[in-house]
Write a structure and sequence with these properties.
two-stranded parallel ribbon, 19 helices, two-stranded antiparallel sheet, 6 strands, Fumarase C, Chain A, domain 2, Ribonucleotide Reductase Protein R1, domain 1, 484 residues, mainly alpha, 3 domains, Fumarase C, Chain B, domain 1
Length: 484
């Protein structure tokens, strides 16, 4: 990548050269101070918008031709120059200059060098306010689709591992937890499915956010539109937007789409953090539910025996970074008057970072989960504690006409005696006048998980039905994504 600051090399031009003036130089007698330039330039991070800005420029040039502002020859000249610039970026040979304030001015400056007077007409009827917002929406539209693809990929890994755990009579099961205390046994497939359903909501939010992002601001100008015969609806259609803006002030000031994307990405990060925390626990000796693959874990520089769940820990840790991106940007937006303010330059870095982190995290976690070794025996042993069947004993009494609160008290007292006095819970149940041998059989290993029969529950039948729905949901989401 060429040096974006133009700090060295033959391609550096002083800001006083004819092709190196700021776009707004005519209003000012003096050139910008170096301190101002250093503080305001965004070229160090907005270069990823280059292909999207070039696309917007191409359509704008054709729109200027339709409006009679560019001749057909001028339009071809500008579009050919844009094609050359695109190739330069693809090859990494684009030469930045010291006067390039951002990627948008860099592209226009280079197009003008190549196209001459025709290039100087490219910015007609357009402000950087609507130009930047257009490129940013095009970028984010593409990025949200990429993130959705990765999230669906992680769902598919979870489904595949759930299928391996099974939901038949020999299925793997483990304790379900509340308050991080063992509660009731659940199938491993059910547990993994819970994460997959949370990610399904994330996909839905990503695609919905993409719809609201897909509105064109091109043609809004600086804030009030244009007196020239431009057609924002035509450029919106050509750029693949669903609609054009309705209010030019709103079009240039709106960053709801960026804030919404940051929220959706932060919530994905929260879901990935939950998954990461679980792997940290499960891979510890205290739980022993999983073994990490060597390729998806790290060691210690001092402790030879260590195998550390770094991917899981970073998924947990970077959720805070994603939440910070959202909170910081909302604080930036909260006091801005209409319409555009330079504060809005702060929209890109948090969005770029959030997109990058989620793409990295979903890929790494997909690899981590796909290579985990589940220790089924350890999971079953932890789930087979007699006390984990306490609810089944209470429901057994309910089936025989005992009010639930009374049943809860009866079983709770037996569990207390079992835990405090060391009494055998199975014998206590067998000897109880309202329970007996039939109820005691419910404490046998693996029985409790078979008794969950309601829709969405953790038993064999409901889990099998759940994964039919989950498979269909993933297929539908892939179709939705493919149709965008």
């Amino acid at each position: 990548m060429p040096d974006p600051t133009g700090a060295s090399g033959e391609d550096v031009a002083p800001r006083s050269s004819p092709t190196a003036q700021p776009l707004w130089h005519g209003r000012f007698a003096d050139s910008p101070a170096d301190d101002l330039w250093a503080y305001t330039v965004s070229l160090s991070y907005d270069q990823r918008l280059a292909p999207f800005d070039i696309r917007g420029c191409e359509v704008h040039a054709r729109g200027l031709e339709r409006a009679g502002i560019l001749s057909a020859d001028e339009s071809r000249t500008v579009i050919n120059a844009l094609s050359i610039v695109s190739g330069e970026f693809e090859r990494g040979s684009f030469a930045f200059m010291a006067s390039d304030e951002d990627i948008h001015t860099a592209i226009e400056r280079r197009v003008t060098e190549l196209a001459g007077p025709a290039g100087a007409k490219l910015h007609t009827g357009r402000s950087r306010n609507d130009q930047v917002a257009t490129a940013f929406r095009l970028y984010l539209r593409d990025a949200l689709s990429k993130v959705a693809e990765r999230v669906i990929g992680l769902q598919e890994v979870l489904v595949a591992r759930a299928n391996e755990g099974g939901w038949g009579t020999d299925a793997v099961y483990l304790p379900g937890y509340t308050h991080l205390q063992r509660a009731q046994p659940v199938l491993l497939a059910h547990h993994l499915g819970a994460h997959a359903w949370a990610l399904a909501r994330d996909v839905d939010r990503l695609l919905a956010t993409r719809v609201r992002t897909n509105v064109s601001p091109l043609g809004a100008g600086a804030l009030a539109g244009s007196s020239l015969p431009l057609d924002p609806e035509w450029t919106a259609k050509e750029l693949g937007f669903d609609a054009a803006f309705d209010n030019s002030l709103d079009a240039t000031a709106d960053r709801d789409f960026a804030a919404e994307a940051l929220f959706v990405l932060a919530l994905i990060g929260v879901h990935l953090s939950r998954m990461g925390e679980e792997i940290v626990l499960w891979s510890s000796d205290e739980f022993g539910f999983v073994r990490l693959d060597d390729r998806y874990s790290t060691g210690s520089s001092m402790l030879p025996q260590k195998k550390n769940p770094d991917i899981a820990e970073l998924a947990r840790g970077r959720a805070g970074r994603l939440i910070g991106n959202l909170a910081g940007f909302l604080a930036t937006l909260k006091g801005l008057p209409l319409a555009y303010n330079r504060d809005l330059q702060e929209d890109k870095e948090p969005v770029f970072d959030a997109v990058d982190q989620i793409l990295l995290a979903t890929t790494a976690l997909a690899g981590l989960y796909s290579t985990l070794e589940f220790h089924a025996d350890a999971m079953r042993a932890a789930a087979d504690s007699p006390a984990s069947s306490a609810t089944d004993l209470a429901e057994y009494l309910v089936d025989r006409g005992v009010p639930f609160r009374d049943a809860h008290g009866i079983v709770g007292e037996l569990v207390r005696r079992h835990l405090d006095d060391g009494a055998n819970l199975e014998e206590l149940v067998r000897q109880h006048p309202k329970l007996g041998a039939t109820a005691a059989a419910l404490l046998a290993p693996g029985v409790a998980v078979t008794r969950r029969t309601t829709r969405g529950g953790a038993g064999h039948g409901p889990v099998a039905e759940q994964f039919v729905r989950l498979d269909e949901r993933i297929r539908e989401d892939r179709i939705r994504l493919g149709s965008l």
